[in-house]
Amino acid sequence: MRKMGIKNIAANVWYSLRILFQECRWLSIFEITMNILRGLLPFGISYLEKRIIDELTLNYNNEADLTFPLLVGIVLLIIATRIVYEYLQVLSTKITIICSHKSSVKIQNSLLNKSKTLDRAFFDFPETYDIIQRSGQFDSNVILTVFRTVMEIVRQAITMASAVVILFTFDYRFILLAIITYIPLFFAEKKRVEATHDLQESITELERKQNYYYDLIQNDAYVQEARIYDYSDHFIQEYSSVRQLLFNKKKRLAFKTDSRSSIVAVLKTTVETLFFGYLAYCAIKGQITIGDITFIFTAFQSVGEAHEYGIRGILRFLDSAISIEYFRKFLGLKNSIVTAETDQGKKLLKNGGKHKIEFRDVSFAYPGGPLILQNLSFCIMPGQTVGLVGLNGAGKTTVVKLMLRLYDCTEGEILIDDINIKEYDPSALYGQWGVMFQEYHTYALSIRENIALAQDFVSDEELRRSGDLACVDDFVKKLPKGYDTQLYKVFDDEGYEPSVGQNQRISCARALYKNSEILILDEPSASIDAQTESRLFTNLKELRGEKTTLLISHRLSNIIYADYILVLEGGKLVESGSHAQLIAKKGNYEKLFRLQAERYIKGQDIESACTDERTKREAAQ
After folding, report:
1. Which among 43-52, 161-170, 319-328, 371-380 has the top mean pLDDT?
2. Helix axes 290-331, 25-60, angle to 10 degrees
3. Burial of residue 2, with CB atoms counted within 10 A of its CB: 0-12 exposed, 13-18 middle, 19 or more buried
4. Which of 19, 65, 455, 495 has a CA 20 to 30 Å removed from the CA of 166?
5. Residue 399: its pLDDT value, please?
């Protein structure tokens, strides 16, 4: 089990209590008051029960006359006290529900608001990525658990203090006996909880593996391959093996801890029984009354219960403190993508104009990795359409990430309109980009919402124009609900399941609908058929001059109409120029273009030869 100092535990517990008091100050104070009363009431009830027993005993021995009104009065007082105790418990539950909701909203909003602003680089470091993952598993009810544990400890402390006073009143040796009796129980419970925590940490990987195998069998994304390759039985067997291993580990822990707990429980029961017998002996000797027996014995047992609850509470604190620590670390992550301090403050990108983008001697390495880009320099003039080409791993997508300032370059600088990109307000900068990423996504929303994602006003005219440019209109017009058709069956049984190519067209339409002044399309036709691809790039040519555009594609036939083409190799800019200029250079670009062209030409030659042969055979017949 992970070790944490008392100071850290206390700091994390105090942090969670501060959050709760900020959200539910008066309810928390009321809860504290109720728990103090709930700690005292059991002894009040026990004392009244003792009075009844004592009065009945004296009445039986004709030493006192127990009147009916007195008996009824004590009974009614006991009933009233019990009702108050139960009502306080019900009221505490209601307060818990309210406080739970308020603290959960606070925690979840903090997590979501922090998540949306995190630097992309945090996902590249194992240490910070672990913090992100653990914060995502953070249970917002932990805050309430800490508060309830504190209240439980407060209540048990009051109960124990009252019990100690009662035992001391009769005989101080009773206190020593109670402590000696319940110390083994204290340590046995401590060992059990620690062993449970240790087991939970040791089986985390196994549980993850079990969940993975289960997902492979159940997830619809794997259904097709599961049928074709018939691997379901294999993963069912793997899942069963892991499940059995988990069961064996839990069984061994249960047997071990239960055996220890049984021994301690027998010891506890034996001592309590002997103590009860001793109290009975004292009553026979006339040293205490019969009512005192129940009163003292209840106090004796309360000391043990307080011990037990105390150790459980302390260990719950440890468990909660670890979760809260990760939550605090997550909120404490400091972004490096911030606006540089200048005399003019944050700069905003001008709206309504074309923009110039310049890379000056830019080098970049992902955290802990080698250089991906080296001394990269180029300039995209306002309104230009620039193509970016190169083999896999050349650094094309990294250029996009730097241009969007998802990362800061390691060396050099990136300028937009002759101003360092670091001087712009990042959130305002993001608003100027229309981007279709290579790893695009569509969502369980309507097609309209997928295209006009999170925008308050949706213009039908602009929506249809973007859909037409991205060739989305081709299949949307065939759907009964058109652009209001829900994607996927997550929330709608009649949801439409788009193909991969249709998803890509929707994502492309989203980038176009944003009507941004800088457009970036990273492999916009990778999953689109040849006919649709031809139409898409013909449509995109209409935007030439309207926007500053960066186009990335492995299919060089889609790049030839660009005003300027940049060729990357190994993170370096090896060639640049128009299509005609690069072909004339007979360098890397010309080789790549010729390889792709020859493939199509050979395909056409083979098809032509087959046609000629078929014609000859028909003529011979």
Report:
1. 371-380
2. 170
3. exposed
4. 65
5. 93
User: Is residue 47 a contact partner of residue 295, using CB atoms and an 8 Å limit?
Assistant: yes
pLDDT at 547 over 70: yes
Coil, strand or helix at 375:
strand
Residue type for 475, please? F
C-alpha pair distances (Å), 575 with each of 396, 427, 548: 14, 33, 21
Pairwise CA distance, residues 561 & 64, whole Å: 113
Two tokens, residue 156:
């048990």
> What is the pTM assigned to this prediction?
0.68
Rounded Cα–Cα distance for residues 46 and 383 (Å):
87
Give the other-Cβ count within 10 Å of 370's Cβ: 8
Other C-beta atoms lying within 10 Å of the C-beta of residue 309: 19
Please answer whether residues 186 and 308 qualify as being in contact, where contact means their C-beta atoms are separated by less than 8 angstroms: yes
**CA dist., res. 606 & res. 611, Å (int):** 9
Give the pLDDT band of residue 581 (cuts 50, 70, 90): very high
Q: Can you point out the beta strands (E) in 32-177? A: none
CB 486 within 8 A of CB 446: yes
**For residue 621, what pLDDT band results from cuts at 50, 70 and 90?**
very low
Residues near 559 by Cβ (< 8 Å), separated by ≥ 6?
Answer: 387, 389, 551, 553, 565, 579
Give pLDDT tens digits for 439-472: 888 888 899 989 987 676 678 888 888 889 899 9
Q: Are 402 and 159 in contact (CB under 8 A)?
A: no
Structure tokens at 174: 């009773």
3-state secondary structure of 365: strand
How far apart (Å, rounded) are the C-alpha atoms in residues 356 and 416?
A: 6
260: its two tokens: 């220890």
- Three-state SS sequence of 94-129: HHHHHHHHHHHHHHHHHHHHHHCCCCHHHHCCHHHH
Please tell me whether residue 359 adopts helix, strand or coil conformation: strand
Tokens 């788009």, residue located: 498
Q: Which helix (H) or strand (E) holds 360?
A: strand 357-365
> CA-to-CA distance for 162 and 301, rounded, in angstroms?
12
Q: What's the token pair of residue 149?
A: 């544990």
- Those residues whose C-beta lies under 8 Å from the C-beta of residue 301, and which sit 6 or more positions away, are 272
Mean pLDDT score of the chain, rounded to an integer?
79
Q: Cα-flanking dihedrals φ and ψ of residue 568, to 5°?
A: -105, 145
284 within 8 A of 144, measured Cβ to Cβ: no
**According to the model, what pLDDT value does residue 228 have?**
67
Q: Name which residue leads in pLDDT, 414 or 65.
A: 414
* Residue 86: Cβ within 10 Å count: 12
Both ends of the chain: CA-CA distance in Å? 86
pLDDT-derived band of residue 351, with 50, 70 and 90 as boundaries?
low
Which of these ranges, 108-112, 428-432, 443-447, has the smallest mean pLDDT? Answer: 428-432
